[in-house]
Amino acid sequence: MGVRGLGHDVVDVAAFATQLAEPGTRMRSLFSVRELRQVSERARVKNDSEAVHLAVKWAGKEAFLKAWCEALGEKPYPFTLDDFPWREVEILDDSRGVPHVMLSGRAMREFRDSLAGDGPSTGSPSMPRISDGGVADRYTDGNGAQHLRADSADCAGPIPGVHISLSHDGPIASAVVMIAV
After folding, report:
1. Burial class for 74, CB neighbours closer than 10 Å (0-12, 13-18, 19+)
2. Is the alpha carbon torsion for 44, 49, 51, 52 positive or negative?
């Protein structure tokens, strides 16, 4: 496996919590409804603050962006920080609590197109095809475990070749993302 991009980000949880609490902040709007639901449930189960779980997801989004930029090499970046579709880059846990990067909308299309060697939907050895034409939903497998199923351009599933690791300890949240061939 070859690495095309590597990104790392660290977030100060207390500073992030302060930013979330500021009047008029739009930080929560940069997370998807699914991310916010997962964070709320995780905070309830762990009996702690939503801020720590949002901070680690934010670190994941930033680490993904850094890895993507590195993977692009000399190609132009499809977004600036001002127009990056943060809500379309979701950091979601599967039924076992394993985090995955999930892309939808413009983020998914730009990611696929910017890294595919031979066009937007045919895929290549460097960027597997992301399927088009379905709807995202949840399903329960034969063992009773819940999974996300997503197979559309509007809401893609976990992106092949993108690996993420999240961690938080005390005042620090951290994420590492690797885009592999």
Report:
1. exposed
2. negative
Q: What digits encode the pLDDT tens for the residues 40-53?
A: 999 999 999 999 99
Edge-to-edge order in the sheet of strand 162-169 = 3-12, 172-180, 162-169
Residue 124: what residue type?
Answer: S
Going by C-beta distance under 8 Å and a sequence separation of 6 or more, which residues neighbour residue 101? Answer: 60, 64, 89, 90, 91, 158, 159, 162, 164, 177
Model confidence pLDDT, tens digit, residues 105-154: 999 999 999 988 633 333 333 333 333 333 334 434 444 444 344 433 44
Show the tokens assigned to 39.
């964070």
- What gap in Å lies between CA 15 and CA 9, rounded to an integer? 15
As given in the structure block, the two tokens for residue 42 are 């995780």
- Between the CA of residue 78 and those of 36, 52, 55, 142, 154, what are the distances in Å? 26, 30, 25, 40, 18
Compute CA distances 163 → 22, 60, 98, 147, whole Å. Answer: 32, 10, 11, 18
pTM, two decimal places: 0.79
pLDDT reported for residue 181: 76
